[in-house]
Amino acid sequence: MVKEHYSDAVDCALSDFVTPSKFRTVLFEQHNLPGGITEIPVEISLTKETAAKLSFKVPADGILYGFARIKPLVREKFGVNSAKLYINDWEVRFVLVFELGNQTEKAFYVKQEEVIYLIENCCRVPQQR
Question: Is residue 74 domain-resident?
């Protein structure tokens, strides 16, 4: 069952915001380090079913960390200079949540296939190959 918390969220293509060429994963130990000047931190939460569809082993908690080079896009679309992106697996679909620097959130729904494509085709740490 899909949660109603983001009832105002609309469907969109994940590629409207982030593509594999602009995304890289990092290890848990690196996720609190600052990214590049055009990057925002990303946290992807996967169910066991979705994690099993990937070509590499996902940590037991199902969380992958990374950075996306989309800070200029976030500034243009939302008018803020800082944000964090969460991509959460809700089983039926994924919710893409931008936690904006002004204490607000903006959410969108994206397809599981798009998230899997992003993860499989981005620049991954060697432990995920």
Answer: yes
In a domain, 25, yes or no: yes
pTM value?
Answer: 0.93
Question: Considering the domain boundaries, does residue 7 fall inside one?
Answer: no
Query: Would you say 65 and 25 are in contact if contact means Cβ atoms under 8 Å apart?
Result: yes
**Domain assignment of residue 77, given as a range:** 12-128
In DSSP notation, 51-90 reads HTTSSSPPPTT-EEEEEES-HHHHHHHHS-S-EEEEEEE-
Q: Do residues 20 and 117 lie in contact, with contact meaning Cβ atoms separated by under 8 Å?
A: yes
pLDDT in tens, 1-51: 445 678 889 999 999 999 999 999 999 999 999 999 999 999 999 999 999
Find out whether 120 and 113 touch, Cβ atoms under 8 Å: no
Residue 110: which residues within 8 A CB-CB, separation 6 or more? 11, 12, 13, 14, 87, 93, 94, 95, 96
